[in-house]
Each structure stands twice: as structure tokens, then as C-alpha cells.
Amino acid sequence: MKKVLILGAGLVTRPMVRYLLDRGFGVTMATRTVSKAEKVIDGHPDGTAIAWTVDDDKKLKEMIKDHDLTVSLLPANYHVTVARACLDAGKPMLTTSYVSPEMKALDAEAKQKGLIILNEIGVDPGIDHMSAKKVIDDVQKRGGRVAGFKSYCGGLPAPDANDNPYGYKFSWSPRGVLVAATNSALYLKDKKEVNVKGENLFEDFHILTVPSLGDFEAYPNRDSLDYIDIYGLKGIDTMYRGTLRNLGWCVTMQRIVKLGLLDQTPDESLKGKKWSDLWKKLTGGAEASRKGAADHFGLEEDDAIIDRLEWLGIWSDDGLPDTVPAPLDFLSDRMLGLMPYKENERDMLVQHHEFTAEFPDGKKELTTASMIDYGIPGGDSSMARTVSLPAAIGVRMILEGKLNLTGVQVPVIPEIYEPVLKELATLGISLSENTVEI
Q1: 196, 240: one domain
Q2: Which of the four, 15, 35, 315, 407, has the lowest number of CB atoms within 10 Å?
Q3: 250, 244 in Cβ contact below 8 A?
Q4: pLDDT at 177
Q5: Is residue 411 part of a domain?
Q6: Ranges of H-type helices in 339-381
Q7: Distance of alpha carbon 403 from alpha carbon 145, whole angstroms
Q8: Could you give the residue numbers annotated as active site?
Q9: Which of 308, 221, 323, 197 has the alpha carbon at shortest distance from 267?
Q10: What phi and psi, each to the nearest 5 degrees, are found at residue 193?
């Protein structure tokens, strides 16, 4: 029996674990909170839950040596440490996270040792790459040029569960969502580079209409230019990767950013304080009220942005949480408490691509590819399924010898994306495509 080590037991792990156990793999889940892993394993005889914390390097190395492949679902800053241990042990590794420069630097050694480190095989990144590359390769095989590519993805509440002022609920790490909101972005628009600083991220948004769903706010996601070479799109005019949120998110997050609530710097003086104390410190003494907020931000008191901030309680007399004393961690805890999915509520994963293609005979095509996937009431969320099932398929392919690649890889080549997309379709996860001449 091939044995898989999964590091972490977060909100997206269950579909992967059950997929692997149901297909005859042994699975060990190593996590700080063993009870979470035990709940996922649910008594399966081939599943094991063990206690482990990220500072225990010795145990990490021992676990990696005892397993055939390691999956890191830890926060992104730990992936390179895990990869380093996997290379030392001569074992392959998989993550659903973006490839960092430090991870990319391990490519030559991984190839020299005949090992694969497969990254970005979740949903965003993951299914977005695979579904996009499928269309791009088809255009190029027909002699065409992709002149424009826009890709959008958002994990959101299903319309029947969309009942809070932010139009958002957490199906994965709230801290991860907020940290991602501090990233700068770079994209190409009509052959011109657009560079967006992290503090201005939510000012650069536009409205996208998704067929059958309606309007969403879209803002840029990291460095889109990295994928020009990865996707084989040299000479493209427009290259944009974006994140989708419900209306009102970006204009409200602009104020949260300007307030300083995404600051990750610990401040011991905030321990034992109230939200109103934090509010006054961040605003330089503004009144802890709707009027104080409206005056501070230069808005009318009845503005919907003020409604959202008041609902969040950021100038209330509630006590600050007993967490790392940093504004971002306070906000993460607050949002998780106010914006969870209730029992039997569904989440929704929206993915939408737009491709403009040009051909030598003068013909032009617009291809759209869209996926609207819903969570299962009382079962797995859409976010969990779409993140962890592509990864689980990747694990199986590696361990069954069906993926004989080495080095630091992402799923943008047919050897990976064709079988993964084919199997995902059997699991009810696929994009519908439509092409028209323009």
C-alpha cells in the first residue's frame, strides 16, 4: 500500500483524504489539532491522525521518510521547508499553492534527484490553469494566436446563503483571505503593463457579468505576467487574472486597508483592549460611532460602507480576541465569527475565462469557459472539493507511475491537465465552453 502524508487538517482537506482512502491508499494526517484529522478520517482503517506542529523539524523528516509522498496544506510560507525535507529524503511532494521564487529555485535539484514537486494543483491556482491551457493549446494547434486572456475565480456564498452585508463567508482560512488582500498585482492591458500596489489593490476593480449569475466585482490577482511564458502566450495584448467578489466588497475593503486593519505587526499594547480602543488608535482618535466613521472616511453617515463597517463591529466596545495582537489577526478572528457557513448552507465556486483569438485568415473568435459549482448541503463545500480533488488526482497519478515528470511543476502541460480534467468531469467538476466568431 502506498502511503501519503498530509500536513494540515484545514477546511479543504476532507475530499482529498476520502478520495485517497477510497482508492486504497494509506493516509496519515499530521496536524496540531488531532481531533480535526480524526473527524476527517472518520474511523477508516487505513487513515491515521497524529499530533505535529510546524516547529518540530525532526518529526517532519521522520514522517516524510516513512511515506511515499507528502502533501503540504500548510500556510504557504512553510512549503519550501517541507520541500527541502522531501528532497533530502528522496520523496515527491505536492501543494495547491503558488510557486514561490524559493520553491522555483529547487527545480534543478529535484530534476537531478528524479523527483517531482507539483504545485498549483487546486482550483485557483489549479483548475484555472488546466482549463485555460486546454483552450489555449487548441487555438494554437489550429494556427491561431491568443490576443487576449482574462481569467476570474471566486469562492462565494450560494445566492440562497448570501445573507450578510459583505456577500462573503469563509470556506477556507480567513487569515489566508486577508493576507492575499495585501498582495500587489501586475497585469497587461492592451499591451501596457499595469502595476497595482498592495495598498491600492481594491481601488483597481471592475464589474464582470457572469452569465446566469449576474454582476460581480473583479480585482487583479497577483502577477498575471508570470503566466505569459507559462501559458506560452508571448506577444499577447491583454493578460489578466482576477478574483471575484459580490458587489460592495472592494469599496469596503478599501476603507479597511486604509484604516490599517490588514497590518500584521504585533502590538502588545493592544492585549486586553476593546475594538473601540483599536479604532481610536488607528484613526488618531476618531469618535467610535457611525458619525465618527463617516467623518473619518469622508462619507455620508447613511452610506452602505458605514453599514458594513458597523456590522463588523470595528468601533464597538467588544473585547479584542486573545490572539496574536496584530490588527489582521483581530480582523480574521472577527470575520470568522461573523461570517461562517451555517449548517446545510451551500458555498459557490465561480470560474470564468474569456479568450480572444486571431487566425491568419482574418477570423477572430471569442471563447468563454465558465464553471458554477455548488457545495453539498451537509457535506463537502465547493471550495473543499475544487481545491483538494485536483490535488488528490495528482497524488494518485504520481504514486501510480502515471506522471513521470520531475522538477518543480505546475499543471499546464497535457500530460497533467488532460487526465486531471477528464477525471474531474466524472466527479461533476467541469467548465462549459462557448465559442463565437467576432
Answers
A1: yes
A2: 35
A3: no
A4: 87
A5: no
A6: none
A7: 29
A8: 124
A9: 323
A10: -75, 135
For residue 257, tell me if it sits in a domain: no
β-strand partners of 94: 71, 118
Give the span between the Cα atoms of 171 and 350, in whole angstroms: 14
Rounded Cα distance, 337 and 232, in Å: 43
CATH number at residue 197: 3.30.360.10
| CA angle (321, 322, 323) in 5-degree steps | 95
234 and 195 together in one domain = yes
Q: Are 182 and 198 in contact (CB under 8 A)?
A: yes
Q: For residue 171, is pLDDT > 80?
A: no
What pLDDT shows up at residue 352? 96
Domain tally for the chain?
3
Task: Measure the N-to-C terminal CA separation of the chain; round to a whole number of Å.
Answer: 54
**What's the pLDDT at 320?**
96
Cell of residue 364, nine digits: 477572430
Which of 218, 192, 170, 217 lies closest to 336 in space, CA to CA? 170
Q: Could you give the CA distance from residue 208 to residue 431 in angstroms, rounded to a whole number?
A: 18
Residue 164 near residue 156, CB atoms below 8 Å: no
Distance CA 293, CA 301 (A): 8
Statement: residue 174 has pLDDT above 90? no
For the stretch 236-239, contacts whose Cβ atoms lie closer than 8 Å and that sit 24 or more positions apart, written own/partner, are: 236/146, 236/147, 236/148, 236/149, 236/188, 237/147, 237/148, 237/188, 237/190, 237/191, 238/147, 238/148, 238/149, 238/150, 238/188, 238/189, 238/190, 238/191, 238/356, 239/148, 239/149, 239/187, 239/188
Residue 175 pLDDT grade (very low, low, confident, very high; cuts 50, 70, 90): confident
Quote the distance between the C-alpha of residue 196 and its chain's center: 19
How many Å apart are CA 278 and CA 263, to the nearest integer? 12
Range of the domain at 193: 127-248+342-380+431-437
pLDDT tens across 315-324, in order? Answer: 999 999 998 8
Burial class (CB in 10 A: 0-12, 13-18, 19+), 172: middle
Average pLDDT over residues 237-262: 97
Same domain assignment for residues 106 and 137 = no
- Separation CA 194–CA 212 (nearest Å): 30
Q: How many helices, marked H, and strands, marked E, lie in the chain? A: 16, 16
Is 103 a domain residue? yes
Tens of pLDDT, residue by residue over 276-300, are: 999 999 999 999 999 999 999 999 9
* CA–CA dist 375, 390 (Å, integer): 16
Which of 305, 338, 371 lies at the terminal end of a domain, its last residue? Answer: 338
Residue 107: the pLDDT is 98
Pair 360, 220 in one domain: yes
CB 357 within 8 A of CB 150: no
